[in-house]
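Field notebook, page 285. I keep forgetting to write these up properly, so this time I am using the form the group agreed on. The chain and the ligand, C2E, are recorded exactly as supplied. Prediction of the bound pose follows.
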Amino acid sequence: YSKENGRNCFSFYFEALKTDSNRVLKLDSELRKAIENREFTLVYQPKINTVTNDIVGIEALVRWNSEKLGFVSPAEFIEHAEESGLIISLSEIIFDLACEGNHKLVAAGYPKIPIAVNVSSIHFQQQSFLESVQTILERNNTSAQCFEIEVTERTVMNSAQETVSKLVKLKQLGFKLSIDDFGTGYSSLSYLVRFPLDVLKIDRSFIQHICSLDDKQAIVDAIIQMAHRLQMKVVAEGVETSQQVELLKSMGCDFIQGYYYSRPLPMKELIDFIQFWEVEHQGRI
Ligand code: C2E
Ligand code: MG
Ligand code: MG
Ligand code: MG
């Protein structure tokens, strides 16, 4: 019996591995085709100023609806793109789409709302990163002032010296700079001080239980104080309830992003949302 069980166990494990590697193979070949055919779109999620209610920016998030695989989450295909080197061409497609998004925003009358683009650490670390981004902006007739670049805490913690000089150059070009997923990557304070960052985004994992867990509250409170001392603005990510909004406001959090205000939307719907929002709050952006 035990032998039999052992074999079943093994073959079960083997089957799981096989399905897994089948998935990776399919993902790989579909992703290559998708990049060739540029089958990606961007959706945009607004960030709201907690004091003025202005929309201070929107974050671009990539979407891929594959003919064969259906909807694939960015977490899955970005990771695969990073491991296979496809991320460089994918990043260029994403930047191109973000430039298109910017043209649509300008045409709709909102030239001052910057679009935040997530940058993969693999792309960021390429020697040609700055050049490739500049080329894309020029090709699309847009300027760095219209964009914000989101790098994750993990990206900037990799190699301090090179990172500092790259960030400084991006800043000189006119990009706003954000550090994404803050709190998940063991960053060193001494690095943080040296980076010319404008915005710190507190990871959703801290926001999720902020109303029920005192330790999460203490951490978020401390991060906000620290960021403000370093002249950075703070975005809370993944905000879903009015209780979270109220608590974050009371802690002095500058901006809020999350389903509570809006899910990420296609540009057309996002523009409708902005128009609705302006009427609702009778403010100008
Ligand atoms: P991220 O940059 O931290 O993006 C925030 C994620 O949280 C997005 O997931 C967004 O849809 C989701 N989100 C926003 N508000 C809420 C909320 O209230 N509740 C919950 N539960 N979730 C919320 P998404 O679009 O699935 O993206 C996941 C991650 O994939 C991103 O995390 C980013 O790291 C990566 N990613 C997405 N788009 C791109 C891209 O264009 N380029 C690169 N390099 N990475 C991207
Ligand atoms: Mg982000
Ligand atoms: Mg994040
Ligand atoms: Mg994230």
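OBSERVATIONS:
- The pocket of magnesium ion (ligand 3) is lined by residues 180-181, 201, 203, 237 (CB under 6 Å).
- DSSP finds twelve helices and nine strands in the chain.
FOLLOW-UP: compare against the apo run.
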